[in-house]
Amino acid sequence: MPSRVIASLLGLTGFAAAVVAGLLAHNPAPLVLTRALLAMSALYVIGRILGALAQRALADHLDQYKAANPVPVDLSQPGENTEPSTQDTKKDDPSSTAATRLSSPKPATSAAA
Prior knowledge:
By secondary structure, the protein is mainly alpha-helical. 61% of the residues lie in helices and 0% in strands. The chain has a domain at 2-68.
C-alpha cells in the first residue's frame, strides 16, 4: 500500500512538473501532454520500486527491533486483577475514603486581612 501511494505522488509530481515546464517553454499542447504522460509513467514505476524498497527496509528494521526488545510475558491468570488493591489503604486514615473527604468541612478562610 505505501509503495502505491509513493508511486502515485511521484508520478503526479512528474506530470505537473512536465506540464509547467512545457508550457513555460511555449511548446504545443499535444507535445506537452505526451511528455507529461511519459514522465508520469516513468516516475510511477520508479516510485513503485522506491516504495517497495522503503517498505522492505522498514519491515526489516521493525523485525530487528522486535527481536532486540521483546515484550515481557504477562504471567497473571486471565481475569485476574493486576491493579493495586484498594484494601491496602489505612482504615483509620480519614482521607482514605471518598465519603469522608466529601463530608469533611473545608477550612474557613478569612477575608479580613
